[in-house]
Amino acid sequence: MSKYDCLKLENQLCFPLYACAKAVTRHYKPLLDEFDLTYTQYITMMVMWERKSASVKEIGEYLYLDSGTLTPVINKLESKGYIEKHRSDDDARGVVVSITEAGKKLRDKMVKVPEAMGGCVALTEEEAGELYTLLYKILKHFDEIDADE
């Protein structure tokens, strides 16, 4: 075994994760184009459908996105009328995002998207559950590493 084997693409866990993430978002695109949403806008709306109202910081933590990435997404969703922003009552520097009636109505139209995507993923329900658990285990570990820094 060569000391360079660790640098072979076939020996990297990160590469199939990266390639799968790209493939998944590529397959979401035609489904989301119908609603004039990007994938990042879609997952932001998922948070809003669940939470109804959240600070920009909370949304970023939930989605693993920094404010530089999230702010334009929120601005675009606001311009589409799906959410509205206002200053936090607790912290004048903080921004709270709330879902609008149009945003709530969008949810009803979007329920077909996860089902359509489910048909693209060649995993059994059990395999999908295992993968979900493993991926969140990795994310949790990175969160712990980041918290220690």
Named at the architecture level, the CATH assignment is Orthogonal Bundle
The CATH topology is what?
A: Arc Repressor Mutant, subunit A
Low-pLDDT residue spans: none
> Based on DSSP secondary structure assignment, what is the total number of beta strands?
3
CATH superfamily: Winged helix-like DNA-binding domain superfamily/Winged helix DNA-binding domain
CATH class label: Mainly Alpha
Instruction: Indicate how many domains the architecture comprises.
Output: 1
Question: Notable features of this structure?
Answer:
three-stranded antiparallel β-sheet, globular, 149 residues, Arc Repressor Mutant, subunit A, mainly alpha
Would you kindly provide a written description of the structure presented here, covering whatever features stand out?
With about 150 residues, the chain is mainly alpha-helical. It has a single domain (about 10-120), classed as Arc Repressor Mutant, subunit A (Orthogonal Bundle), CATH 1.10.10.10. It contains 7 helices and 3 strands; from the N terminus they run H-H-E-H-H-E-E-H-H-H. Strand 2 and strand 3 form a beta hairpin. Helix 2 packs across helix 4 (about 65-80) and helix 3 (about 55-65) crosses helix 4. The longest helix has 24 residues, at about 125-149. The two termini are about 35 Å apart. About 10% of the residues are buried. The mean pLDDT is about 95.
Brief summary:
The protein is mostly helical and 149 residues long. The protein is 64% helix and 9% strand.
Write the layout of secondary structure elements.
Elements: H1 14-33, H2 39-51, E1 53-55, H3 56-63, H4 67-79, E2 83-87, E3 95-99, H5 101-110, H6 112-118, H7 125-148
Antiparallel strand pairs: 1-3, 2-3
Helix pairs in contact: 2-4, 3-4
